[in-house]
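Human: Respectfully, please carefully check these tokens:
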Amino acid sequence: MSIKGLFKPIQVGDITLKNRITMSALTRNRAENTIPTELMKEYYVQRADAGLIVTEGTLIVRQG
């Protein structure tokens, strides 16, 4: 497959991804009191061209 193949849609289960580019999870610890912030939202909006983004982990309780 050539690099052009990265930009073709792919079916994953019931979901069709617009391309085969993925972004792995990153834990950046920018949540405030375990609540996602506008800064976090903007970070992912800027990367929304990826076909699949696995977002960062969040804590259920502060003690982790």
About this structure: The mean pLDDT is 86. The radius of gyration is 15 Å. The helical segments are 38-45.
